[in-house]
Amino acid sequence: MWTLVSALFEKQIRDAIRKAARVDLTGPVAQGKEALHAKLAEMRQTTGVQVDLTNTQISAGPIVAAPSELIAVARFESVANVTVSALP
After folding, report:
1. pTM for this one?
2. Cα atoms found within 13 Å of the Cα of residue 64, Cβ hemisphere only
């Protein structure tokens, strides 16, 4: 039932949430970027595969209703340039 109601009123729900709620995600996004860069550096050292990310964008995706909360999906997009310096 909630899925049907949320689908019918998605724009109104999004507008109400946008007006009423603000969340600063600067810290978690920075931590995520650091963790990703660390994993890419580790991969380069252990496999010889280097991945450089450019044009990275992080944006809010759909808001999904769970039984006791709303879940905001984050969308990560980037261009990956991959260099293989050694083959297994």
Report:
1. 0.58
2. 6
Q: Distance (Å, rounded) from C-alpha 85 to C-alpha 48? A: 5
pLDDT digits (tens, 9 = 90+) for 20-63: 767 777 888 888 889 988 999 999 898 889 999 999 888 877 87
User: How far apart (Å, rounded) are the C-alpha atoms in residues 79 and 75?
Assistant: 14
**Which residue is listed with tokens 């990275």?**
56
One-character DSSP codes across 44-83: HHHHSEEEEEEEEEEEEEEEEE-SS-EEEEEEEEEEEEEE
Q: Tell me the per-residue pLDDT of 61-75, one tens digit each, with 9 for 90 and over.
A: 787 778 888 787 888
CA distance 49 to 68: 42
Token pair of 1, please?
Answer: 């039932």
